[in-house]
Amino acid sequence: MLSPTPTLNSETCAIGLDVGGTKIAGGVVARATGKVLARQVIPTLAQRGGEFVLRDALALVEALMAEARTLELGVLGIGVGVCELVDPNGNVTSHNSFDWRGIPVQETFSQLAPAVVESDARAPALAEAMFGAGRPFDIFTYLTVGTGISYCLFNEGKPFLGARGNAITLASMPLTTTCTTCGAVLNPILEEFASGPGIVARYNHQSGKIVSRAEEVMIAMQQGDLTAREIIQSSGEALGNSVGFLVNILDPEAVIVGGGLGLAGGLYWESFVAATRAHIYADDARQLPILPAALGVDAGLIGAAARIFQDF
User: Fold this and answer.
1) Ranges assigned E (strand) in the chain
2) Which residues contact 24 (CB under 8 A, 6 or more apart)?
3) Residue 214's domain spans which residues?
4) Are residues 83 and 174 in the same domain?
5) Which pLDDT score is estimated for 175?
């Protein structure tokens, strides 16, 4: 049975869910301020299959709705950000982390309260537009850099979806080229080079050591490891190459960067920003603002809730 929509007031909230490949972060988000009033995080355990992930996500929403009732807040709805391609009707159309294709995910969550399913690339862009670093801008590009790398163009008050909801892909496809020296055909994939797992894989291969997180590579760099430094710097430069190209195509007022790796700062950020500016063609765009996301790691769940604020 669908829950009734509460009267809009300063004590109204929404449940925001950020469903990633490794964890599901959920929160009770205040409509007036975007503040996260209560938060819970559980592991995704995606290897069990999509049905199990959906079951756990529903249970997390129910727990957060109970917390909202304890706080005497009216729940306007449930926003679900997913680390997959999502079409304009809220259907999940890819299965990179877990498979929700063909499952009526939005309808299932709607049994608890009005619900919207959204891509986790678009949700944080909306959050930054409403409550964060995107507020001064009409047109900006939001970049997510972490386990994966994706983007969203925010324009005319909303994230741009494209015809099928796929206008988020930046780093998952091969950038095919032929080496002018040896003639070898190269198919580098930016995500396998500059994302968190890409950095880990490159470091393990080149150093002969075994680490599991990009943070460990950054710590090694800070301790003087030259291999770690080269990998971090080259990863940031590669990302900047693509983002400069993105700026040339989209011509945003600003670039806002979120995700765990995107907010790491240090050499990765410095090399990324320098490379981005070096690859921007137009003189009057080269010094555009490149800003860290103001909402940090909560941008995804806040943005999922913001979809409810926007639509209901």
Assistant:
1) 12-19, 23-30, 36-43, 74-82, 115-119, 139-145, 149-155, 158-159, 177-178, 185-186, 254-258, 290-292
2) 17, 18, 41, 42, 43, 44, 53, 56, 57, 60
3) 139-293
4) no
5) 87
pLDDT digits (tens, 9 = 90+) for 112-137: 999 999 999 999 999 999 999 999 99
**Can you give the three-state secondary structure of 11-63, one letter per residue?**
CEEEEEEEECCCEEEEEEEECCCCCEEEEEEEECCHHHCHHHHHHHHHHHHHH
Q: What is the pTM of this model?
A: 0.92
Residues 117 and 219 in one domain: no
State whether 195 and 160 are in the same domain.
yes
pLDDT tens-place string over residues 230-258: 999 999 999 999 999 999 999 999 999 99
Q: Give CA–CA dist 78/13, Å, rounded.
A: 9
β-bridge pairing 254-258 and 139-145 = parallel
Note the pLDDT tens digit of each residue in 160-217. 999 999 999 999 889 898 988 999 998 999 999 999 999 999 999 999 999 999 999 9
- 160 assigned to some structural domain: yes
